[in-house]
Specification:
Structural class: mainly alpha
Largest sheet: 2 strands, antiparallel
Order of helices and strands: EEHHHHH
Radius of gyration: 25 Å
Strand content: 5-15%
Shape: elongated
Number of helices: 5
Distance between the termini: 55 Å
Helix content: 40-55%
Strand order of the largest sheet: 1-2
Number of strands: 2
């Protein structure tokens, strides 16, 4: 059975469902029926499969890494893409200093070259 489409393949306008049929009892319904749209409606089959895997793995990327044989950054990028398509905006992670930068900040603090407040700001990535 074909999946229902919600856009006209000719003009890309929204389609309206006007007929429903039950294969079991052969009942037909005529009228105008609204398609239910959810945030999941805009996802491709591959993206839906990703979400199902995410749920099955209880939202744990380390389990998804094993199951899908993908790296954490790849999983995170796909997840963020799906969130965006679903209309959820992801927070942009602040740039945190690397371990090397953290050591340099702490060394400057220890040598008295910067204040505690400055060190805290730098360690926060501000």
């Amino acid at each position: 059975m074909n999946k229902i489409i919600d856009k006209c393949p000719i003009c890309n306008n929204e389609l309206i469902v006007t007929s429903l049929h039950c294969n079991n009892c052969r009942t037909n319904f005529q009228g105008m029926f609204e398609l239910s749209h959810t945030p999941l409606s805009n996802l491709s089959p591959e993206q839906l499969q990703f979400i199902l895997t995410f749920i099955r793995c209880e939202g744990k990327f380390n389990r998804m890494e094993e199951e899908l044989d993908l790296s954490y950054p790849t999983l995170r990028n796909r997840f963020n893409e799906i969130l965006h398509i679903m209309g959820f905006e992801t927070e942009i992670e602040e740039e945190k200093p690397s371990n090397k930068d953290r050591k340099e900040i702490l060394t400057k603090l220890n040598e008295g070259k910067i204040s505690i407040d400055e060190a805290q700001e730098l360690l926060r990535g501000n």
